[in-house]
Queue: 4 jobs
Job 1
Amino acid sequence: MSLRLGDIAPNFQAKTSIGDIDFYAYLGNSWGILFSHPADYTPVCTTELGKTAFLQEEFAKRNVKVLALSVDSLEKHAGWINDINETQHVTVGFPIIADEDRTVANLYDMIHPNASETFTVRSLFIIGPDKKVKLFITYPASTGRNFNEILRVVDSLQLTANYSVATPANWEAGEDVIVVPAIKTEDAIVKFPKGVKVVKPYLRYTPQPNLD
Ligand code: BEZ
């Protein structure tokens, strides 16, 4: 059964490139990103994992722990990580799950048989500290993900989890945000002392509330 937004992300135990892990124990109270790629020693995946390693500090700043997954073996992962480090000029420090028996792939519905019977598609799940699925996106094997976009949606998810705001199209951290419709304008003016710009009664902007 496929997971939906708000569902509890299932726990699992897995072999990974940094040792055996229990998913929940690995996440602790952090946010998590679990993403699959079709196979080791493939070009697009090499760049994706390189980009993820390059952005490790950005993920850490946001209290996000990252895990990658493919259905290849630990031995394959080890050799491929050397290649990623060499070609992408990074050090892969996050775990890559060796899901040879497809336990995790099946749990997270990462195999889409009409795309490939054997390999995982590019699924990505963002999981909150409450272990609930906050976002998922799925790309085909031929399209590499934009990891700047993934950081951007983490920023939006973390902001909107804590304030009564939503983020408009193409929003980037630091830009004005939208006051959620559930808040009346007279209450919004009190709640958001930096100001509320009313464009329409249902379209109200305020500066990002968690910035000085
Ligand atoms: C890749 O990751 O490079 C890739 C994998 C499967 C099909 C096409 C590209």
Job 2
Amino acid sequence: MTKFNRIIILTGAGISAESGLDTFRDKGGIWEKYDLTQVATPEAFARDPDMVHEFYNLRRGMVKNVHPNPAHKALARLEQEYPGEILLVTQNVDDLHEKAGSKNICHMHGELGKVRCQACREVMMWWDDLDRHTDCPVCEKKGRIRPHIVWFGEIPFDLNKIGQYLENSDLFISIGTSGTVYPAAGFVQAAMDAGAHTVELNREPSDGYSLFEETHYGPATQVVPQYVEKLLKEAYA
Ligand code: OAD
């Protein structure tokens, strides 16, 4: 019999670190190299679209060349084999969960491989570079295409769906996130309020580690496959 029927998994940059993508707040991370107010806010885009496009063109280029690691693959296996519902909520804008085979995913901070037109609102898959003159292939307006990314000051995607799921979950697993950016940083409390068991899998204790009932520390490529193995074993015991 399964101990948990509805599992919600939150992932952050730490799960993709061993695939070769920088995290944000670790030493040498993205926010050490870039001022987020210059590249990741709607104000920055209005002021200097070239700088914002350059930042996301670079990141899009990097993501095109990396592969899912054993942690992404373990979560895809869990979704396939676990006899219960699983929702994967990621703060990551890369597509490594999809490449690993996960299907039920909310990209709450958007996706590097998508853009949207601010004129006609169409959301499109897009892996090429963008610039301030790029035409919208749907409405043909020039210069209205932006990355489909949630910038600071904007509302994350899928919050209603995530909130409803959290209210009814019985296991919450947080993986590779520093737990510093809200609303995601508040999910552990919401899960606890719903009576869920809470688990942190991270390289080291996050800011909110004391809220978790169970913790396992080490590289994601080790702790995530181990934890998934344990969940599957218990489910079929
Ligand atoms: P952070 O860079 O804040 O945190 C990364 C976490 O991953 C840290 O707790 C690290 O200890 C952990 N970590 C690093 N390498 C790891 C590894 N190999 N295995 C396991 N854990 C590892 O990244 P996020 O928490 O994802 O938002 O950041 C949250 C949001 O802040 C991002 O989505 C982004 C950023 O600003 C926006 O851009 C809107």
Job 3
Amino acid sequence: MADYVRPKKHLGQHFLTDKSIAKDIVEAINPASKNLLEIGAGTGVLTQYILKNESLNFKIIEIDSESVSYLKQHYPKLTQQIIEADFLRFSLDDLFDENFSLIGNFPYNISNQILFKVYDYRQKIDEVVGMFQKEVAERIAAKPGSKTYGILSVLLQGYYDIEYLFTVSETVFNPPPKVKSGVIRLKRNQIEKLDCDEVLFKTLVKTAFNQRRKTLGNALKSMGAKQWPAEYDLLLSKRAEQLSVKDFVVLTNLASETISPH
Ligand code: SAH
């Protein structure tokens, strides 16, 4: 019986050793949720608390075969619900019949990719509670004007209300990571669809932040915009990190009109 999983660096394995923190993370999920997916359960420190809610339809995606056999041995009832797969490559379309929530002490080496996938599945994912490296957690929750505000902050804040819940010290992990961690919660808001072309919105947000020192006017020009009405001059003299989701929506509609399709 495997009683130990050797932490593997390339899988971002840092096992949480503090049970009260594990409990706090699990309790941050809306208790009314029906379907829950855990990413990267490892040795099940969160899983043991998740299972206390017996009416939950619960699944795990874990990439590490050693962790998967550990979980199957320690939680035999879960055997059918554990999927050995790479979350980034796994289609979430048919995982549950209805919308679901996501929980995890996420592998830090793929945090951004996980969050982009949440954005892609925003119509199916109602809530996310999880631990990221502190800097990523802060960035996702950051408001316009702050230095850490970035692409994922805008994309996710368009569809989720985001709260930074608490900071976790590096000392409660085996092995300890180099940085502190932060737990955040994302709750789906009421916005079904942004009031603009959402594909162009994403492109524009990315373009604007990839040239974050330029004004939006210059960033727009690089996308092929010609001229725009003078009333937009003030907005376009700002830089990406100063703009709210609403500002980006306005800008996207402006771009739809001023960028000629080729
Ligand atoms: N939840 C556990 C483990 C956290 S470490 C705890 O808190 O102790 C991150 C976990 O994510 C590891 O178990 C690792 O194997 C898993 N993991 C890493 N990359 C993954 C991927 N692409 N898909 C699914 N799981 C992954």
Job 4
Amino acid sequence: MESNIRGIIFDLDGVICFTDIFHYQAWKKMADNEGIEFNEKINERLRGVSRAESLEIILEKVSREYTPEEKASLMVQKNNMYRELLATMTTADLSDEVKNTLDTLREKGLKLAIGSSSKNAKFILQQIGLGDYFDAVSDGTNIQRSKPDPQVFLMAAEMLGFAPEECLVVEDAEAGIDAADAGHFHKAGIGPARNYGKTEFPLNSFADLLQIF
Ligand code: BG6
Ligand code: MG
């Protein structure tokens, strides 16, 4: 048991549930409509990054300048398509492994929070049946700076009433591990962040968290 850890802050997309494919499909449609090149490799760079910064990355390939109004309209297009896909999510999109592991961690006395860059985090949590589950939710609606800035995790820790050193961040994105590192949190990495150099606890699967506590 990591005795000084009292709270766990989970990234949402790619950790608790898998909305990355919906982000990809929605950005891809937007890009196709605009005649902009977009592929899975570019998509990987969007993991954990805010909507506005994601659009900037996608527009790197384009020679002409988009006005702020055009950019805002492209983000609305993308988000509308993304939310249509999110609306198809149900409690079946929360795996038994994730739910049982969360329940067990809570039974062990740990406080559980979300730290997500997404402005859709609360909608996603509702869809998968975790609307009222977490002790704190810090998301894209309460931050000015997105990962790799630590703000979203610092606010989650503050909501829990713990110091960063007392919290473990669980992330799938390198940008998220960088954010946790910058904020002096403990860091567990899953999926693409598993083998990242700054990751302290590599997880093969979500239930591996039970080997830490
Ligand atoms: C993060 C995703 O959770 O949220 C990013 O990993 C996404 O890919 C970001 O860009 C912002 O999401 P939203 O829902 O506010 O567009
Ligand atoms: Mg993620």
